[in-house]
Amino acid sequence: MHPRLLTIPSFDILGFTVPSFTLHTYGVLLAIAFLAGLYVASRHAKRAGLDASRITDMAVWVLIAGLLGAKVLLVFLDWRYFSRSPQDILTIFQSGGVFYGGLIGGLLVAWWYVKRYKLPGWSTADVLAPGVVLGQAIGRLGCFAAGCCWGKPADVPWAVVFTDVYAARQVGTPLDSPLHPSQLYESVAAFLIFLFLLWLAPRKRFDGQVVLAYVALYSAVRFGLEFLRGDPDRGTWFYGALSTSQVIALFLLLGMAILLPRLARQGREGATASDQPAG
């Protein structure tokens, strides 16, 4: 765990004091995640015959909305802490927020952008999905480096022990205790989903299949991984049996169970109609 890549202490020059500067590992990996996701989305947009520049612009706005949405949900779930330390709300490049808050924020902006510029909705979502999940895979490595989103105490050979006092001070990481590397679990799962979406994209049978597969697979993975998360204030539902992320995952899985058959049926009907000879 290395939450800081570089720290430059404050110094005086020509009678002025230059403040100290810290380059956080999470912020660097977040930037890499965005660039990688943007590259993948641009490539898929070209293959799908969409305007790559328009998709790139959309991705920038979706990223901003995602960052804000993740922080908003984090503040909502941990209001007691942030009401006492409001300055920590701005620590976007030190640690992350709640992913589902980012997903909701990103989806709302994406919906607005699609309507504003009259883009094909499901096709655009299919183009963005692989890049988003690749960004997640890289972003969770940033969480691991920052020490946030840690796992429960573990007695397994691959348990991790955090020792960085700075991380403990910034995000409350438990030190000197073997924990499940929940950040790495999710990073690996997201990368496997990314590979599956790359395989599925050229083989999809209807528009929307790729993005719905992403949401369904990630929701199932997140629901299971929540049982291994050890960071507090995750929200409690049904007498503490489920976290807020698990409840959202269940709603998303229910939505996918409704949407997937419907879009598949529409895709089959559209293909049948296109096969009919002109009259």
Structure description:
The protein is mainly α and 279 residues long. The chain has one domain (21-261). The chain is built from 9 helices and 4 strands; from the N terminus they run E-E-E-E-H-H-H-H-H-H-H-H-H. The strands form 2 sheets. The chain has a two-stranded antiparallel ribbon with strand order 1-4. Strands 2-3 form a two-stranded antiparallel sheet. The radius of gyration is 21 Å and the shape is globular. The model has no long low-confidence stretch (mean pLDDT 84).
Count of the domains = 1
State the major sheet.
Answer: 2 strands, antiparallel
Which word captures the global form? globular
Chain-averaged pLDDT: 84
Distance between the amino and carboxyl termini: 67 Å
Structural class: mainly alpha
As residue ranges, the low-confidence spans are: none
Helix content: 55-70%
Counted beta strands: 4
Radius of gyration: 21 Å
Tell me the layout of helices and strands.
Blueprint (H helix, E strand, L loop, with lengths): L3 E5 L2 E3 L2 E3 L2 E4 H23 L4 H26 L1 H6 L14 H19 L3 H26 L18 H7 L10 H19 L8 H17 L18 H32 L4
Antiparallel strand pairs: 1-4, 2-3
Helix pairs in contact: 1-2, 1-5, 2-4, 5-7, 5-8, 7-8, 8-9
Which structural traits does this protein have?
about 280 residues, mainly alpha, two-stranded antiparallel ribbon, two-stranded antiparallel sheet, 9 helices, about 5% strand
